[in-house]
Amino acid sequence: MHATKTKVLMAMEEASRCLLCYDAPCSQACPAQTDPAKFIRSLRFRNLKGAMETIRTNNILGGICARVCPTEKYCEGACSRTAVGKPIRIAFLQQFLTDQEQEINFHVLHPQKPTQGKVAVIGSGPCGLAAAAELAQAGFTVTVFEAREKVGGWLTYGIPADRLPQAVVDREIQYVRDLGVTFKTGCRVGKDTSIVDLRKQGYKAILVAVGLQKSRLPTSKVSNLRASIRPPTSLDWLKQRPTNFTWVSVWSLLVGATSPLTVLRRRRTLEQPTLKWCIGAPWRKCRLPRRRKNASARSTSPSLPASSRRKL
């Protein structure tokens, strides 16, 4: 109880720093249209449920976005408070509100009576989950087809737990499921079933939300290597969810690339003894946000010296 009270006080104090802008550049800069200015205003005047309602109605995956969105590029970067000091910690406030929503068991959205027919969504990543929730709220009967054994797509298989805890992903997925959305895992459309079969089953519309999960190799020389000798890419490695290996070699770490850094950070999460890696350019020129660079530097091994680098 004491910890919760402390968090509430910290959130209230942070919200009190808001300048209550009329045109709210933070809301204009939010690509998910979560409207941070509105929920910060509600929080500032102690209307916690109103703030939770703003987040959840505008962004069904608000708890996930609060943790993985590069807010320093969007809402926090546009915050008017930067002219006189530090920006409002919008990600912290959004994370606090979505966590509080679960703690007090407050439900903003409720299942609607199906009246609009059946819709199939192929892929259960962030796009598929958000679309399924919106369609369910509009009165459609929604079924999400997922090729893997777990729902979530890249949220489950690509982002390490130190950045996005699996419990948060499961909570957001359950929220979508509670809206009446049905999930079918282990069903690959094109192999186990087909678009034609889905049409025959009465689905009036089909949304393909499979995402882009193939890595881009740096040179044609590497791309043309046989699969048996071509080194695994960071995306391939992350999708395997490894837990019992002894070492990993990340053979190419491009400047500003998120996925290779994710691999390096997962090494510490899985408590692996060694890791060989190489940065292809000076670390100071890496285009990642400062907080992401600092977190990666703390959780990875030193890079190889320049003399050991090999150009691919």
Question: Which terms would index this structure?
Answer:
two-stranded parallel sheet, 312 residues, four-stranded parallel beta sheet, globular, FAD/NAD(P)-binding domain, Fumarate Reductase Iron-sulfur Protein, Chain B, domain 2, alpha/beta, 42% helix
Taking the alpha carbons of the first and last residues, their distance comes to 55 Å
Number of domains: 3
| Largest sheet strand order | 3-2-1-4
CATH-derived architecture of the largest domain: Orthogonal Bundle
Mean pLDDT: 80
Description:
With 312 residues, the protein is of the alpha/beta class. The chain folds into three domains: 2-103, Alpha-helical ferredoxin (Fumarate Reductase Iron-sulfur Protein, Chain B, domain 2, Orthogonal Bundle), CATH 1.10.1060; 118-208, FAD/NAD(P)-binding domain; 220-308, no CATH class. Helix content is 42%, strand content 10%. The strands form two sheets. A four-stranded parallel sheet has the order 3-2-1-4. Strands 5-6 form a two-stranded parallel ribbon. The longest helix is centred in the N-terminal third of the chain and has 14 residues, at 2-15. The termini are far apart.
In short:
This protein has 312 residues and is an alpha/beta fold. It is built from 15 helices and six strands.
Q: Mind sketching the topology for me?
A:
Layout: H1 2-15, H2 25-29, H3 36-44, H4 48-58, H5 62-68, H6 75-78, H7 90-103, E1 118-122, H8 126-137, E2 141-146, H9 154-157, H10 166-178, E3 182-185, H11 195-200, E4 203-208, H12 220-223, H13 234-239, E5 249-253, H14 258-269, E6 276-279, H15 290-298
Parallel strand pairs: 1-2, 1-4, 2-3, 5-6
